[in-house]
Design brief:
Strand order of the largest sheet: 1-2
CATH topology of the largest domain: Wheat Germ Agglutinin (Isolectin 2), domain 1
Radius of gyration: 22 Å
Shape: extended
Structural class: mainly alpha
Oligomer: single chain
Number of helices: 9
Length: 191
Amino acid sequence: MICDNCRKNEAFIHFITFGNNGELQKINLCRECVKDFSFLNDAADDSRKESPLFNVLAIDLGHLIDGSYRDEGQGRNELSLNVRENKRCSNCGVSIARVKKSGRLGCPKCYEDFRVELNPFIKIIQSGIEHKGKIPLNCNKRLKIEKKIKDLKFKLEEQIIIENFEEAARLRDKITNLQKQLHLTGKRNKK
């Protein structure tokens, strides 16, 4: 897929947002163009803010939070932010009212402090609230095993639901072996 901004490079980030008229908009950007749009930074210079892509790229939590998220075929969705407007981030001091108005968070700590309010909307935007990407090669072996166990448990539940008990037993055994391996890894780290 080609970048919608420069129309030269291969796009690697794909934004989906809702336009002013409630229609779904999709923007594809390459690595270079993403660097040019520091849309999550309030300090972005005015020339960037006047870019036609700026408003589209600013992931519009504000529209979701105030309840104007539109679900295909159902009209207006019932999701809305019903919180104390004076709730503030413990790190940067941004209020939930400002997040609601601008659709932008002030700092990474905002995700933690406003977790309860934002999780339903993040689930809509990103199809879940948990990172499910790859683990870096230099990451702790224990984390890799824990992720594998979690993935296998999910598959195990699926197999039980569809009553494929042979595969479920195989997955159960695999989980047991990984848990033993995890236990041994923990013992080695304590020494």
